Amino acid sequence: MAFIKSFIEQETSRRRDFLLASAYGLAGVAAAGAPLGVFAQNKPTVAWSYRDRNNPYWHSVVSGGESFLESVGMKKSDLVHLLNGGSSEKSLADIKALLAKTNGNAAIACDANDAPNCRPVVESVKKAGGYVSTIWNKPDDLHPWDFGDNWVSHMTWSDEGPSEQTARILFNAMGGKGAFVGVGGIAANNPAIERRNGMMKALKDFPNIELLDYQPADWATQKANQVMQGFLTRFGNKITGVFCANDSMAYGVLEALKAEGRKLPVVAYDGNAEATDLVIKGDLLATCFTNPYWGGGVTAALAYHAAVGTFKPSSEPREHREFYGPTILVTQKDAAEFKKKYITGTPTYDWKDFWGPSRGQIKYAGKA
Q: What is the tally of helices (H) and strands (E) in the chain?
């Protein structure tokens, strides 16, 4: 697991670089992601607003976005990277700056970082006349069809069910008894909330298992490593299992366990290449794949094609405006085959087939 130690070191370096880059504002970010000449073209500037490309999940998302650009005759380097480092304030500021630079001639793919930030993002895009497609985070009462064509679509993943499945795998591996700890994402993130809810739902069926503590680690490997070290100090050998809300945090957890000479059942989420290898080796019990490559490509494609007039979002049914992306549970028995299909060989996608792999319209609690 040498890559985990390297991953933690990269996160430390990335945080330092992010703080330095933030001082330069959008100009510095745009220069890193695309030449400024792109802003002067008639085609919309295509941008991805996201957290961190050093994270394998987001690297896959943005790689999908780059693949889409190539499908319309552009270059990978034409994609503008709006890196927010987990800051909702920077996410919004960078999007506003991009809209100002392009006079609204922009097609933006975006994870708003947390649910409250989605509203000011989409309001800013609509006001400027740009187009945005979002993933993961938005309030339940905020919908693309309330913004005409400018908020093209929102995609999320139904995380509660898959997280319940991974939690059950963990609890069964613990023999239906003992005590575990949980490491979660950013508290206001929709996926962080749903993944914890799924875990708690599974726990109801295991009365002999105790949840010792559940702490956020903001989706970050280094912070998860610190959180797990704290758990080990507080609870010691009482811990007999670990639930992680994503793969990157699981890497930090595994490194903390290794430092203490302990091997415990651990489950994760995202289906990254590194996590899949850990499942094959038996270091992780399970992960859950959300096909971030397809998600990243189709989100950029939807925003772009709406901007150039290929289709009119407001003419589409609601299941094309808000929809679930695909999920695949990955366990040791099927991890090798999964890796062959989705990681070693990346499937080829038709980026105009916007809703092919999707799983239907988003449903909200208490509503049919």
A: 12, 12
Compute the distance between CA of residue 219 and CA of residue 244 in angstroms, rounded to an integer. 9
Contacts (Cβ under 8 Å, ≥6 apart) of 251: 1, 3, 4, 7, 8, 221, 224, 274, 275
pTM over 0.85: yes
Indicate which CATH number applies to the domain containing 44: 3.40.50.2300
- In a shared domain, residues 93 and 134: yes
Q: How many residues does the chain have?
A: 368
Distance CA 176, CA 220 (A): 29
Residues 118 and 99 in one domain: yes
- Averaged in consecutive runs of 10 residues, what is the pLDDT profile of the chain (368 residues)? 60 48 43 40 91 92 97 97 96 98 98 96 98 97 98 96 98 98 94 97 98 97 98 98 98 98 97 96 97 97 98 98 97 96 88 96 78
Tokens of 156: 């999320």
- The boundaries of the domain holding residue 309 are 20-157+292-326
Q: How far is it, in rounded angstroms, from Cα 117 to Cα 80?
A: 20
Are the beta carbons of 176 and 206 closer than 8 angstroms? yes
Number of CB atoms found within 10 A of residue 75's CB: 12
Could you tell me the two tokens for 164?
């319940």
CA 232 from chain center: how many Å?
Answer: 28
227 in the same domain as 279: yes
Residue pointed to by tokens 């490309």: 53
The C-alpha atoms of residue 168 and residue 84 are separated, in whole angstroms, by: 34
Return the closest-CA partner of residue 302 out of 133, 78, 79. 133
277 plus 311 within the same structural domain: no
Three-state SS at 71: helix
The confidence score (pLDDT) of residue 367 equals 59
Quick one: how far is CA 174 from the chain centroid? 28
Residue 361 per-residue DSSP state: B
